[in-house]
Specification:
mainly alpha, globular, DUF6123, single chain
C-alpha cells in the first residue's frame, strides 16, 4: 500500500526522526517543484536519511531531482538506483 508523504513523515517521527519545520517545508517545496509523486518523494527522504544519517535539504533536493529525471517511479526502483550510485 502506498502512503502519502504526510503519513511517511508521521511514521518517521513516531520512530524517532525529528524534522525541523523548515525541513518539512522544504520537502513539500521539492515535491511541488518537481511534480514528483509521493512514493518518489518518500524514497528521496529515505535515501537522504540512509546516506546522510540526518535530513540534509540540499542532498534531498538533489536526490529528488535525480530520481525524477531518471523517471524512477517506485521505492524499489529508487533503492536499486541508490545501490547503483554507491549511496547504500
Amino acid at each position: 500500500m502506498k502512503i502519502t508523504t504526510e503519513e511517511f513523515l508521521i511514521d518517521l517521527e513516531s520512530r524517532g526522526f525529528k524534522f525541523q519545520e523548515d525541513a518539512i517545508g522544504f520537502i513539500y517545496f521539492g515535491k511541488q517543484y518537481t511534480g514528483a509523486p509521493d512514493e518518489v518523494v518518500n524514497s528521496a527522504i529515505e535515501i537522504t536519511l540512509k546516506a546522510q544519517k540526518a535530513f540534509d535539504s540540499s542532498f534531498y533536493m538533489s536526490i529528488l531531482e535525480r530520481l525524477h529525471t531518471q523517471r524512477i517511479s517506485s521505492r524499489k526502483e529508487a533503492l536499486k538506483w541508490m545501490d547503483a550510485q554507491g549511496l547504500a
